Amino acid sequence: MTALDDVRVTVPAGQTVGLVGESGSGKSTLAKAILGIVPVAAGRVLLDGAEVPVRELTRRVRMVPQDPYSSLNPRRTIGQTLAEAVDPARARVGRHRDRIEAALAEVALPADAADRYPHEFSGGQRQRVAIARALICEPEVVIADEITSALDVSVQAEVLRLLDRLRHERSLTMLFISHNLAVVEQVSDEVVVLHHGQVVEAGPVDDVFAAPQADHTRALLAAVPGGGRSPEGTIVE
């Protein structure tokens, strides 16, 4: 069985590309293939036009995972987790204290969060830690994989506002994976629509949402209240 067939996704530097599709369309499989987590029969990952060896991918491309509860080691403090992200070979909190505190401040968490354990935080706070962990090593590309789907509706908007701020402040190059088209519209510059492991439509977000060309894209938009569009300048809650 072929999970992905001739899928090509280009993420321009400093921009966010939304990857959308129904469950089973191949979104997360593509993310894992990019990171070298799952083997591929053919294909390449290029950064700045050059092919990247798998051993370099974990340093240059970082993921914010879907589940904030299982993504953090319960036996490690937040500081230890962030120190390991900076330097796995010398993951000492004291050595990286300044970077850890700066990373926590960037996601609106206090410095003393470094000394606490994951179970002491809410789901939304843990996802902030996961974002800090992804950004602390200054990756060239960030992959955000359904990062609000495991959160309560009341905190989803907070995390999305944080991510939207960070992508503008840092000029992040990001692949944003979601099944929620309204959210993709808010945080992405371009959108790629997957269906059964194939790209059925791609282009600037405004163009695709205003005049979708593929039947599947039109069906996805029709399934969202308001046709998938949201008030300009807002983050969908």
Amino- and carboxy-terminal Cα gap: 37 Å
What is the molecular shape? Answer: globular
Task: Give the proportion of residues in helices.
Answer: 25-40%
* Unreliable residue runs: 231-237
- Write down the Rg: 18 Å
Question: What is the third-level CATH name, the topology of the domain at 16-67 and 139-228?
Answer: Rossmann fold
**Mean pLDDT metric:** 87
**Strands, count:** 8
Strand line-up in the sheet with most strands: 4-5-6-1-7-8
**Classification by helices and strands:** alpha/beta
Largest sheet: 6 strands, mixed
CATH class of the domain at 16-67 and 139-228: Alpha Beta
| DSSP helical segment count | 9
CATH 4th-level superfamily of the domain at 16-67 and 139-228: P-loop containing nucleotide triphosphate hydrolases
Q: What is the CATH architecture descriptor of the domain at 16-67 and 139-228? A: 3-Layer(aba) Sandwich
Strand content: 15-25%
Order of helices and strands: EHEEHEHHHEHEHEEHH
